[in-house]
Design a protein that fits this description.
The protein has an eight-stranded antiparallel beta sheet. A seven-stranded antiparallel beta sheet has the order 5-6-7-8-12-13-14. A five-stranded parallel beta sheet has the order 19-18-20-21-22, with helices on both faces. It folds into three domains: about 250 residues, Glutamine Phosphoribosylpyrophosphate, subunit 1, domain 1 (4-Layer Sandwich), CATH 3.60.20.10; about 190 residues, Rossmann fold (3-Layer(aba) Sandwich), CATH 3.40.50; about 150 residues, Glucose-6-phosphate isomerase like protein, domain 1 (Rossmann fold), CATH 3.40.50.10490. It is built from 19 helices and 27 strands. By secondary structure, the protein is of the alpha/beta class. The chain starts with a strand and ends in a 17-residue tail after the last helix. The structure holds fructose -6-phosphate. The site of fructose -6-phosphate has 15 residues, from α8 and α16.
Length: about 625
């Protein structure tokens, strides 16, 4: 999703703005640009450079035609309104106003219509309209600050904005409604960024704007206003922890680094949710979820998008089996518009790595407005969802930079399994002995992931074969069915090979017609109580010519050795944690297939890391 960075100070900003954009690359984008207010011979002017494609293109452009000043804004654009062209790239200018914007102005066509007599529009973007509105208000006699706040009142939609105005030197304006906006406090300089990562080398003191807030920044200070224009103090968060997590280290891609981090990241997750010393899961109170009592909860409603939704689907099995707690899973974009029947004792939990995904956030707000208790299982604790939900449940996976989610997925699963055990124990469905054994299984997760990572070489070889396929199927039963969905998603999003995940028993109700000689079918089947049934489905596709890759354990491999030409043998793990461990194999398979095909693994085409539009 688009990224913003801005600096108001007393030293040249262009190089640092471009560095900031590089730290935002992980969000996904298709063009980039920078604008500064230049002073020449006592005269100021607003100048910009923009380029389609990667930030190196912008860098080249700035090298050829340098710009610099002490006040500037920059942006990476992920196209929504208007094609991917240099003209549509931000910053946009209108008169004296330069603007960068994330999100969508929903009423931009009517606003544009209202200005069309007096203004000429150079782009098809919603953003340019806002610049014209500010400029128009200044022409009518307002100051820059008045024009900015006056314009904000007319905008409908979700946006984060940064504005500089020629002739209003030394001031930068910013606002947030929907997408996050962070303000960094510096020494003789201040900054705006679409997240703290963008500002990580500039400032460790961050103010997160609340919904509807706007602010005026100068080199010496920051004044925040609420939606009603009242000056307001917002808390300064001191960012701790190493932003080294946002570096690739020796790994070829962030995605590979993040796959390899999973022994550690799942351990971090566990540290929060279990008391390993006493072989117990933490109670709601110990987890800081004061007021939550799983005994009073009648239904859990999990709401998420993409990979996070697949983690939620796995958790449905856990909540129902371990805690006898009915559990619905909804894809967030469908949830609120289907006007779900909500019952009072439902606990709604949004699952979101970023905590900013627009659909999930809207669903969370819908639940809150309708009186449900709400929680969010989240990686970014400073995110909007974490701040708005009644209960924030961290996964502690550290910054996830690769667009394809990996370590967040296994940490989501680990946290959800722990919570399902907490619920089961509180509700009397898990006694002390069962709890001890389940917690022991949880504590083995990091080690089992480590062992599974040793399959990397063998999986890489299989990936070479998979990379020639036009299309592939993933099959699984029970908790491994959502894992099949996730396997297919990982493969298609980074290798661009068409892939479908299916419940193993469902294939014969239609999709089996697509199986022909050599079609790759990845079957996820540890030797659990559903193993034989899944193996029957494996045979159904094998006899029709499928090229089967079976992901199982040693016992399963022995049983099926003559049925599948390729077998990935995972370590022996408990049935309950198997989806977390088996997730590593599907991540590696997708990763190596994509590397073999030479795609942009960390920033796959058309995708964005944090989807802050509906
Ligand atoms: C896929 C992927 C996406 C996200 C989805 C939700 O690899 O990363 O499907 O899972 O966009 O994002 P969050 O979890 O940030 O709400």
């Amino acid at each position: 999703m688009c990224g913003i960075i801005g600096i108001v100070g007393s030293k040249p900003v262009a190089g640092r703005l471009i560095d900031g954009l590089k730290r935002l690359e992980y969000r996904g984008y298709d063009s980039a640009g920078i604008a500064v207010i230049e002073e020449t011979d006592g005269l100021s002017s607003l100048v910009r450079r923009r380029a389609k494609g990667k930030i190196v293109n912008l860098e080249e452009r700035v090298k050829l035609e340098p710009v610099d000043g002490v006040l500037g804004i920059a942006h990476t654009r992920w196209a929504t309104h208007g094609a991917v062209t240099e003209t549509n790239a931000h910053p946009h200018f209108a008169g004296r106003v330069g603007i960068v914007h994330n999100g969508i102005i929903e009423n931009f066509t009517e606003l544009r219509e209202a200005l069309k007599e007096t203004r000429t529009f150079n782009t098809q973007t919603d953003t340019e309209v806002v610049a014209h509105m500010i400029d128009e208000a200044m022409r009518a006699g307002m100051s820059g600050q008045e024009a900015f706040s006056h314009t904000l009142k007319q905008l409908r939609g979700a946006f984060a904005i940064g504005v500089v105005i020629d002739g209003v030197e030394g001031q930068m304006f910013t606002a947030r409604k929907g997408p996050p906006l962070a303000i960094g406090i510096g020494d003789g300089e201040n900054y705006i960024g679409s997240d703290a990562i963008a500002l990580s080398t500039l400032s460790k003191k961050i103010i997160y704007l609340e919904e509807g807030d706007w602010a005026v920044l100068t080199a010496d200070g920051v004044q925040v206003y609420d939606a009603d224009d009242n000056p307001i103090e917002r808390e300064i968060t001191h960012i701790t922890g190493s932003m080294a997590a946002a570096e690739k280290g020796n790994y070829r891609h962030f995605m590979l680094k993040e796959i390899y981090e999973q022994p550690e990241t799942t351990a971090h997750t566990l540290t929060h949710y279990i008391d390993a010393f006493n072989h117990k899961v933490k109670t709601e109170d110990e987890l800081g979820l004061k007021g939550l009592d799983f005994n009073r909860v009648e239904r859990v409603s999990l709401i998420a998008c993409g990979t996070a939704a697949y983690a939620a689907y796995v958790a449905k099995y856990w909540f129902e089996q371990l805690a006898s707690l009915p559990c619905d899973v909804d894809v967030a974009s469908e949830f609120r518009y289907r006007k779900p029947a909500l019952s009072g004792n439902t606990l709604a939990i949004a699952v979101s790595q970023s905590g900013e995904t627009a659909d999930t956030l809207a669903a969370l707000r819908y639940c809150k407005q309708n009186g449900l208790q709400t929680g969010v299982l989240v990686n970014v604790l400073s995110s909007t969802m974490a701040r708005e939900a009644d209960y924030a449940m961290p996964i502690n996976a550290g910054p996830e930079i690769g667009v394809a989610s990996t370590k967040a997925f296994t940490s989501q699963l680990t946290a959800l399994l722990s919570l399902a055990i907490t619920a089961g124990a509180q509700r009397g469905f898990i006694d002390a002995e069962a709890e001890k054994s389940l917690v022991e299984s949880l504590t083995h997760i990091p080690r089992h992931i480590n062992e599974t990572l040793k399959l990397d070489g063998a999986i890489e070889e299989l990936a070479q074969k998979l990379s020639t396929a036009k299309s592939a199927f993933y099959l699984g039963r029970g908790v491994h069915y959502p894992l099949a969905l996730e396997g297919a998603l990982k493969l298609k999003e980074i290798s661009y090979i068409h892939a479908e995940g299916y419940a193993a028993g469902e294939l014969k109700h239609g999709p089996i017609a697509l199986i022909e000689e050599g079609t790759p079918v990845i079957v996820i089947a540890p030797s659990d109580e559903l193993f034989e049934k899944t193996i029957s489905n494996l045979q159904e596709v094998a006899t029709r010519g499928a090229n089967v890759i079976l992901i199982t354990d040693a016992k399963g491999a022995k049983y099926a050795k003559d049925m599948a030409p390729h077998i990935i043998t995972c370590p022996d793990v408990s049935d309950i944690t198997a989806p977390i461990i088996y997730a590593i194999t599907i991540q590696l398979l997708a990763y190596h297939t994509a590397v073999h095909l030479g795609t942009d693994v960390d920033q796959p085409r058309n995708l964005a890391k944090s989807v802050t539009v509906e």
